[in-house]
């Protein structure tokens, strides 16, 4: 895993943001805050995590999006990451599932047919369509396609070999009604009473102006 500081002003509270597959810190750089440092975690080709990024903070607030929900959850399950509170956004701890995640046939089709051209189409779906993709262009990642493809293949292997389902640490799950990646009902099935419905596509940060909009829900 890679860690990229977005805000580092020696504040006492840290927001630890786990990106979705293929993304980097660009998807949250526009979000302002007055009281937190922010670090983005991404690139799950390796599940090695340097927990020292949390050293010295009185509070660690975990915010995880998409497949980052699984990655953060797995680290907590293994005792490799501790947080005071945790918020899941448009993802589940069972990310490839007919009832609680992305249906296996769709996931396998995405992996098997992934090219740079189909990747662009996938990014459009993440944004809710071509119009959303154009509006959210500044949030798109700047990563090598071959790395992104390798990451998705490895994530598929991790999901099969390292299952878990402990939801205890999660404070809240925000799920988008118009998500074209994770079926809305599947996310509701997974999170139950922890789920709160929000507007927007899978990539739902475009109109978020401050972190308080997420962590004070």
What would your notes on this structure say?
The structure is a single chain. Helix content is 30%, strand content 18%. It has 217 residues and is α/β, with parallel strands linked by helices. The chain has one domain (2-215): Alpha/Beta hydrolase fold, catalytic domain (Rossmann fold, 3-Layer(aba) Sandwich), CATH 3.40.50. It has a seven-stranded mixed sheet with strand order 1-3-2-4-5-6-7, covered by helices on one side. It is globular and about 45 Å long. The mean pLDDT is 95. It holds the Pfam family BioG.
In brief, what are we looking at here?
By secondary structure, the chain is of the alpha/beta class. It has one domain (2-215): 3-Layer(aba) Sandwich (Rossmann fold).
Topology:
Elements: E1 2-7, E2 13-18, E3 36-42, E4 59-65, H1 67-77, E5 85-89, H2 104-112, H3 116-126, H4 130-135, H5 145-161, E6 172-176, H6 184-191, E7 195-198, H7 212-215
Parallel strand pairs: 2-3, 2-4, 4-5, 5-6, 6-7
Antiparallel strand pairs: 1-3
Broad CATH class: Alpha Beta
Largest sheet: 7 strands, mixed
Query: What's the total number of strands?
Result: 7
Alpha-carbon Rg, integer: 16 Å
Fourth-level CATH superfamily = Alpha/Beta hydrolase fold, catalytic domain
């Amino acid at each position: 895993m890679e860690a990229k500081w977005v805000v580092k002003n020696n504040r006492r509270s840290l927001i630890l943001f786990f990106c979705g597959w293929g993304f980097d810190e660009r998807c949250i750089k526009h979000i302002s805050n007055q009281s937190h440092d922010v670090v983005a975690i991404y690139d799950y080709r390796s599940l090695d995590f340097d927990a020292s990024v949390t050293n010295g903070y009185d509070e660690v607030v975990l915010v995880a999006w998409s497949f980052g929900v699984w990655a953060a959850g797995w680290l907590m399950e293994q005792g490799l990451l501790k947080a005071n509170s945790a918020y899941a956004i448009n993802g589940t701890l069972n990310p490839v599932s007919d009832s609680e995640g992305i249906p296996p046939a769709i996931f396998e089709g995405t992996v098997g047919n992934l090219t740079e051209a189909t990747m662009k189409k996938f990014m459009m779906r993440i944004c809710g369509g071509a119009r959303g993709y154009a509006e959210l262009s500044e949030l798109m990642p700047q990563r090598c396609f071959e790395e992104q493809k390798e990451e998705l293949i490895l994530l598929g292997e991790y999901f099969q070999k390292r299952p878990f389902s402990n939801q205890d640490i999660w404070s809240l799950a925000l799920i988008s009604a118009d998500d074209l990646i994770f079926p809305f009902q599947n996310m509701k099935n997974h999170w139950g009473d922890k789920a709160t419905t929000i507007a927007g596509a899978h990539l739902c940060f475009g109109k978020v102006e401050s972190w308080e909009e997420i962590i004070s829900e």
